[in-house]
């Protein structure tokens, strides 16, 4: 073989070897090799913005009387006033001139009948004294719309010291300075004698109101 041809063969072999050395290895081709650093920094991945949380439910208003909450069915039940009620008086015992007082809730909401009714007699000064003990506020009668409560008004025999009246007026205990329009009821020949006329607390039945 001539010198020129031998030199050409050697040059081809060296070139092939150089190409093999510069090519990617099997590991690099499979992805196992190092990754070339990009010439420019990659833009950061944009994070999805979380959705806004639901608005919180408004806190219930505080009870004006009992400090309850909306989970308490009585927290917004206020004392009954004369604006909530219808009022009647029925003669229960003629010999003692005693009357059954009845109130009925005419409003659209429940209310509580607190304590004793305040009863005055026609144009006479003074009012009936309270007889018996009234339940605590939290145990007072709850009057749903259309429901009634009762109280017993004790009259008296004519002893020559009193007067006869044909009507009475009543206001409710509201545990406040709330102004009320008195409710009136007819009481034919009710005899009013000093110290003898008394009234019970409100009760949920007529029998108890008249027997106390």
UniProtKB/TrEMBL annotation:
Residues 35-64 have a biased composition (Low complexity). Residues 80-202 form the DUF4232 domain. Residues 1-21 form the signal peptide. InterPro entries: DUF4232. Keywords: Signal. Residues 24-72 are annotated as: Disordered. This is DUF4232 domain-containing protein. It comes from Streptomyces fildesensis.
